[in-house]
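We emphasize that the prediction below concerns an isolated chain of 87 residues; any contacts that depend on oligomerization or on bound cofactors are therefore not represented. The input was used exactly as deposited, without trimming of termini.
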Amino acid sequence: MAKVTRTSGRGTKKRATDTKKKSTFSGDSYKEYQAAKKKAAGNRSVTTGRGTGRRKLSSIPDPKPRASTKGKARVTGRGTAKRKSKG
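Result of the prediction step, given as a token string:
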């Protein structure tokens, strides 16, 4: 496909990428990646709350599927109008 220049780091970095490459930080592939990283972490713990608490990485809940927005109101037009969501 076409090459696209993407900027990052507050506009200080540029890189050329291909448009047919899918994002690796969304969808089912990322959820599988998260599960593998959680399993690899095992019983490690991280500090929380300015170092006052600890939490095991194995106790973090799995990500939930996104709730459906079908039939709910969606705001459009700078907040001046709304319509029912189709999907």
